[in-house]
């Protein structure tokens, strides 16, 4: 099988970790862009990338590039592709368009004009046409216009890859699964210690943390990928790729804990851990973080998504101060990471973060921050270290 170019879309700030994921999987010619990473691989690798990448939102397969200056050049460019290679008159399709251009300012117009070009080609050739299906199309087409360059791609994934298939229940402000996985990787989580999410909500961090620790492909529970409806779909090859990934699953020798004070969140988190077949690794309890203390020996890795005040009505100043106090007093030997969309609220934590990373949670600019809680005081730690040198 020959290699071809693909593009993996991701969130801002995840480009480097996605590139590293691709290199580890065996991708060729990996190049980072903005919110995307391009790479080369064959059909089997396309299946593998969709199953195994934690920080990709979609995998696109570019099939044509051409210059566009107006609607005529767009129409002609779309007509220059032989669409009968990818579609029959009895199938359905859908077009997504993303536009960064002065010539075009409406993505829906671009999608409509492109649809006309495809339909007209089929009518001329076959006196019949494929239909548009917004929910379950047989082929998803992606159009990206940057200035005067139009790239037409086939969407290999279908629905965004954050739809892992395990999360049937969510709470009021759930975190996107790809965002959760990226945050865990940025935090250095690899399964080498105990893990705690003290405000676990519907349990997304818990499940993603367990999948990373056990090297479980994140989309192994997913119902379908777009490429399964393609003319060249190879079910045997997909099964072989799936089997090879499943053979690489490892055991995990620590515990993953989740707390939440809301009984409804606890029920949802337990359901989602069960759906992901990971309940043996994940322990979920109804507890108020501010009334807890570290209960495990050795290092503890903590990652969580506290309320921002955007959707939940809380006293932010008091809440963030209590977070800082709880970490400082009750959690020695802990690396605590959390994401917040309220940068102002960080000053109430009362601790100095050792790292700050700019991310986006949806359209909201956010910060991922790290607080290091030492065993004893920081000064004592360094005194001990220096006396041993």
Distance between the termini: 56 Å
Helix proportion: 25-40%
Average pLDDT score: 92
Structural class, from secondary structure content? alpha/beta
Percentage beta strand:
15-25%
Strand order, largest beta sheet: 2-3-1-4-8-7-5-6
The beta-strand count equals 15
The count of helical stretches stands at 10
What sort of overall outline do the alpha carbons produce when their principal axes are compared? Answer: elongated
State the major sheet. Answer: 8 strands, mixed
Helix-strand sequence: EHEEHEHEHEEEHEHHEHEEHEEEH
Query: Which segments are poorly predicted (pLDDT under 50) over 5 or more consecutive residues?
Result: 379-389
Using only C-alpha atoms, the radius of gyration works out to 24 Å
Protein name: THUMP domain-containing protein
Organism: Paenimyroides aestuarii
Pfam families: RlmL_1st (PF22020), THUMP (PF02926), UPF0020 (PF01170)
Keywords: Methyltransferase, RNA-binding, Transferase
Overview of this structure, please?
- The chain is an alpha/beta fold.
- Helix content is about 30%, strand content about 25%.
- The protein has 10 helices and 15 strands.
- It has helices at about 15-25, 45-50, 70-80, 105-125, 175-185, 205-215, 235-245, 265-275, 315-330, 380-389, and strands at about 5-10, 30, 35-40, 60-65, 90-100, 130, 140-145, 150-155, 195, 255-260, 280-285, 300-305, 335-340, 355-360, 365-375.
- Strands 2-3-1-4-8-7-5-6 form an 8-stranded mixed β-sheet.
- Helix 3 (about 70-80) crosses helix 4 and helix 5 (about 175-185) packs across helix 6 (about 205-215).
- The chain starts with a strand and ends with a helix.
- The model is unreliable at about 380-389 (pLDDT under 50).
